[in-house]
Amino acid sequence: MTDIFTRLKQDHDRHREMLDRVAATSGDSEKRREAFEQLRIDVSAHANAEEQSLYAEMLSRPDLQDKGRHSVAEHKEAEDYFEDLVDMDFESSGWLTRFKTLKERLEHHMDEEEDEIFAAAKKDLSAERAQELAEIFDDRKPVEKQEVA
After folding, report:
1. pTM listed for this prediction
2. Helices marked H in the chain
């Protein structure tokens, strides 16, 4: 059975590919709109399900609260970027500039989670609890995808 850290890393790897796919598009094309919308839905659903699983657990533990709060704040920042991008002209240079900033921030966030946040949480969580959190995440993500879409 997969633990929460492995499961989240799988999503992160897919999100990195999706970010690159959007970055490789140009103009107000169907390809850009489709790739961006898939990215927006998946990243948002991931963040919501992650907050309901790993981060809910971390926020309940005094020694992990600060790291949990930091990551939740970065999720909100990403959501704000997505909202801005949806409202912008997909063909404008401003859209691409804003998207590149989002890409940079998301990559930083995923790297930070994998290198620092997960390591700290692994020290506190039993293997059994890490598996339970993966189940919670996997139960919540499809629901969140429907709500985000």
Report:
1. 0.96
2. 4-23, 30-50, 56-59, 65-87, 93-112, 118-124, 127-148
